[in-house]
Amino acid sequence: SLIHILPYSSVLKRKAYSDLMKWKEKEGHKPLVVTGARQVGKTYLIDYFARKNYPHYIYVDFSSMVLMRKAFESNLDVDNVLSLMNLYSDKRLDFVPGKTLIFFDEVQECPSVRTALKQFSLDGRFDVIASGSLLGVLNRRNSSIFYPVGYEEQYELRSLDFEEFLWALDVPEDAIGMVCRSIRDKRPLGESLLSRFLQLFREYMVVGGMPEAVVEYVKTRNVFDVNEIHRMILRTSYADMSRYVDSPKEQTLVRACFNSIPGQLSQTNKKFIFSYVDENDGGDGSNATADKYRFALWWIHDAGYANFCMQISEPVVPIEAKVRQDAFKVYLYDTGILMTLYGVDSRIALASEDYSVNMGAVAENIVAECIVKSGFPLRYYVKSNGTDRMELDFIVECGGVNVIEVKSGKNRHSASLRKVSNMYPINRRIMFDITDIRVDEQGIEHYPLFAAAFIRDVLGM
Description:
The protein is an alpha/beta fold.
């Protein structure tokens, strides 16, 4: 049946629901394309939104409703498409103008749907949402397919952020609000609130934000019960690499790049090095080595499996004018998945607050994830020669240049944060570590790691 009711867990409250409501209420809105990595909750969210807000709802899943693809093979006029959809349906579909949402799901299986969105946009009788995974990959792969620039809106859904994770755990809203106000006011939280939220953040780092993993954790409250869910997600990711990468050779390169990310992040220099992808490859860091793996790495990016942090040549505004294309760090898209890749010892160390284990890579990955989920691009700065060498983990432009360092252990000193303001006009110097909120004698602002999830409050937005 095209009218399909999916099970939706009331456990998960998503901020994206409000964004979908804003889209619906905006006058003259265009068809919406919801992108995102596999299993971040696109189908469940849109289905729930549709059933709550539309008296008539048509659901088309192109991965299982194979015949329905035929409706998009030739004439993409809206009336023609709707007639063919009824022809291939096992029941009568009622398309009521002004009251119907049509949800095209798994559109990577029927790329011509994207072309048809122009006709639906011009027609204007029906609300349309299209969703799928690997759409960025397919945009590159299917150069012959026309995508209607200007006739669709796009929205990227990511896995749950920390605040959504707290909602799932029924953490009181007033406690979250108290934390946010303290962050905005640069006021210490106090030992009780600090320790509780640090513990919750450690749980979030191990569980991650993938909806199925969060639901399982809500049921069991055991961080190790989500391991098999993460492994299932990884198996799906590897299957995508086999299915959506053209040749076996390229499939091998994509998997090698993906599997190298945890190890690359554990290096002192976290810049992605192509020659580290396969130690047996004989790569010497040359352009030939980079050329060999560049396609594979960008496939991972386009599939939504990684967050790229681009190096800038100078920490001055506008930052985007200083972005380099030849140097970047690569963070995994979900820190829970990263923890599973690191293995059980790392999860035990994090859960038990054992800081003798190097958790620098995990701390940076979660802060990168928080910054991206807050809507900022990832940027960093390195000066590797001269007496004024420095490395700044993240740079965020908001009211000027804000520089960020991440510390996971007990060492909270940063020569880079101390010297950078003597060289550049810096707005704020921020350190995320495991201490309470304070401003030290040099004006460096210290926040607990979980404050990265509330970086808009940190920046006073």
